[in-house]
Amino acid sequence: MRPRAVFFDMDDTLLDGYSAMQAAWAIVSAEFAPRVGCSEPDALRDAIKREGANFWRDEGQVGHWRVKLQDARTHTVGLALKANGWDASYAERISVMYGAEHRARLAPFDDAIATLDMLREAGLSTGLITNGPRELQRDKIERFDLARRMDAIVIEGEFGKGKPAREVFEHALAVVRAEPDEAWMVGDNLYADVGGARGAGLHAIWIHRDRLAPREDIPAAPDRTISHLGELREALDL
């Protein structure tokens, strides 16, 4: 059944945060490796990546850090530097430079804006449900002109709760006046997007962008899996 509303996650669903991340860490690591006492930029980047992955592995335990991403990044960079005997006094400077480089390179996926416009032209309501700090997420929404393409916007740092909390999805549904079985949720995070949507009774769609694979301890199984948003348009027969 075609839904009345389609909700989207923002980062790595509509916006290509992964490519921005890869490029930003390459630049930052090359800049700071010699300063912290690391002989190879790749070694610095890999150490930070490992600490970040370990830190965010249990999203339920560290979810409160999502609205303090700058602090969380500084913390994990510091852990990486200390673990390898490098100069941890550079942690905040590394974190700040990364944030600026990532922002400069962030962009929508090629299929994102066209898909949103197509859904709205077809008469469907659209919504954005995103975790993270208010200022950071509002900056992205403004820069990429997303607000006028959304009937509902729910940001963790504004609403007071984030995905996978049921209340987040219920609020978005109330704004667009849809029932859970009349709405789809599209996102790349199996824990927050898929698990949260299914817990609230929505049709959950996992988008992997040809780079993600489900973990063995998959937190929630999606109702549908797509690689790109073009498949969503096909599913809706648009």
- The CATH topology name of the largest domain reads Rossmann fold
Report the radius of gyration as a whole number of Å: 19 Å
What would you call the quaternary organization?
Answer: single chain
Strand order of the largest sheet: 3-2-1-4-5-6
What is the helix fraction of residues, given as a range?
40-55%
- Total domain count: 2
How would you characterize the overall build of this protein?
By secondary structure, this protein is of the alpha/beta class. It folds into two domains: 5-16 and 107-235, Rossmann fold, CATH 3.40.50.1000; 17-105. It is built from eleven helices and six strands. It has helices at 17-36, 41-56, 59-62, 69-83, 91-105, 112-121, 134-143, 156-159, 166-176, 190-199, 229-235; strands at 5-8, 125-130, 152-155, 183-187, 203-207, 224-226. It has a six-stranded parallel β-sheet with strand order 3-2-1-4-5-6, sandwiched between helices. Helix 7 (134-143) links the parallel strand 2 and strand 3 (152-155). Helix 1 (17-36) packs across helix 2, helix 1 runs antiparallel to helix 5 and helix 4 packs across helix 5 (91-105). The chain is elongated. The mean pLDDT is 95.
In a nutshell, what does this entry contain?
The protein has 238 residues and is an alpha/beta fold.
Please give a handful of descriptors for the protein shown:
alpha/beta, Rossmann fold, 6-stranded parallel β-sheet, 11 helices, 6 strands
Secondary-structure topology with pairs:
Elements: E1 5-8, H1 17-36, H2 41-56, H3 59-62, H4 69-83, H5 91-105, H6 112-121, E2 125-130, H7 134-143, E3 152-155, H8 156-159, H9 166-176, E4 183-187, H10 190-199, E5 203-207, E6 224-226, H11 229-235
Parallel strand pairs: 1-2, 1-4, 2-3, 4-5, 5-6
Helix pairs in contact: 1-2, 1-5, 2-4, 4-5
